[in-house]
Design brief:
single chain, 74 residues, mainly alpha, 4 helices
Amino acid sequence: MSRAALDWAALMRLGLRELRLTPREFWALTPVELMLMAGLDTAPGPLTRARLEELAARYPDSRKGPCDDNTQRS
Protein backbone atom coordinates (compact mmCIF):
# COMPACT_ATOMS: atom_id res chain seq x y z
CA MET A 1 0.00 0.00 0.00
CA SER A 2 1.47 3.37 -0.97
CA ARG A 3 0.58 6.68 0.58
CA ALA A 4 0.47 9.95 -1.27
CA ALA A 5 3.32 12.22 -0.23
CA LEU A 6 2.47 15.45 1.53
CA ASP A 7 3.21 18.62 -0.42
CA TRP A 8 5.38 20.15 2.29
CA ALA A 9 6.18 23.27 0.28
CA ALA A 10 2.49 24.06 -0.14
CA LEU A 11 1.78 23.27 3.51
CA MET A 12 4.61 25.54 4.61
CA ARG A 13 3.38 28.37 2.37
CA LEU A 14 -0.07 27.91 3.85
CA GLY A 15 1.16 27.91 7.43
CA LEU A 16 3.89 30.51 7.26
CA ARG A 17 2.48 32.95 4.70
CA GLU A 18 -1.29 32.60 4.86
CA LEU A 19 -1.78 31.73 8.52
CA ARG A 20 1.28 33.75 9.63
CA LEU A 21 2.55 31.02 11.93
CA THR A 22 6.10 31.06 13.18
CA PRO A 23 8.24 28.09 12.13
CA ARG A 24 8.07 26.79 15.71
CA GLU A 25 4.25 27.01 15.69
CA PHE A 26 4.05 25.41 12.24
CA TRP A 27 6.21 22.39 13.11
CA ALA A 28 4.35 21.90 16.41
CA LEU A 29 1.08 21.28 14.50
CA THR A 30 -0.15 18.00 13.14
CA PRO A 31 -1.31 18.01 9.50
CA VAL A 32 -4.90 17.65 10.73
CA GLU A 33 -4.57 20.70 12.98
CA LEU A 34 -3.09 22.69 10.10
CA MET A 35 -5.96 21.73 7.81
CA LEU A 36 -8.50 22.71 10.49
CA MET A 37 -6.83 26.09 10.95
CA ALA A 38 -6.86 26.64 7.19
CA GLY A 39 -10.56 25.77 6.95
CA LEU A 40 -9.89 22.69 4.83
CA ASP A 41 -11.83 20.35 7.11
CA THR A 42 -14.95 20.24 4.93
CA ALA A 43 -13.96 17.05 3.15
CA PRO A 44 -16.41 14.20 3.61
CA GLY A 45 -15.65 11.72 6.34
CA PRO A 46 -15.14 8.01 5.88
CA LEU A 47 -17.64 6.05 3.82
CA THR A 48 -20.01 4.52 6.36
CA ARG A 49 -22.71 1.96 5.62
CA ALA A 50 -25.36 4.69 6.00
CA ARG A 51 -23.55 6.93 3.50
CA LEU A 52 -23.13 4.00 1.08
CA GLU A 53 -26.85 3.25 1.29
CA GLU A 54 -27.64 6.92 0.70
CA LEU A 55 -25.43 6.97 -2.41
CA ALA A 56 -26.90 3.67 -3.67
CA ALA A 57 -30.42 5.11 -3.33
CA ARG A 58 -29.41 8.31 -5.10
CA TYR A 59 -27.51 6.56 -7.90
CA PRO A 60 -29.06 3.10 -8.35
CA ASP A 61 -27.43 0.57 -10.64
CA SER A 62 -29.34 0.06 -13.85
CA ARG A 63 -29.84 -3.32 -15.43
CA LYS A 64 -28.79 -2.02 -18.84
CA GLY A 65 -25.31 -0.60 -19.12
CA PRO A 66 -23.87 1.54 -21.92
CA CYS A 67 -22.53 -1.55 -23.78
CA ASP A 68 -25.64 -3.70 -23.37
CA ASP A 69 -27.37 -2.63 -26.58
CA ASN A 70 -26.30 -5.80 -28.47
CA THR A 71 -23.64 -3.96 -30.44
CA GLN A 72 -20.05 -5.02 -30.41
CA ARG A 73 -17.20 -2.67 -30.01
CA SER A 74 -13.97 -3.30 -31.83
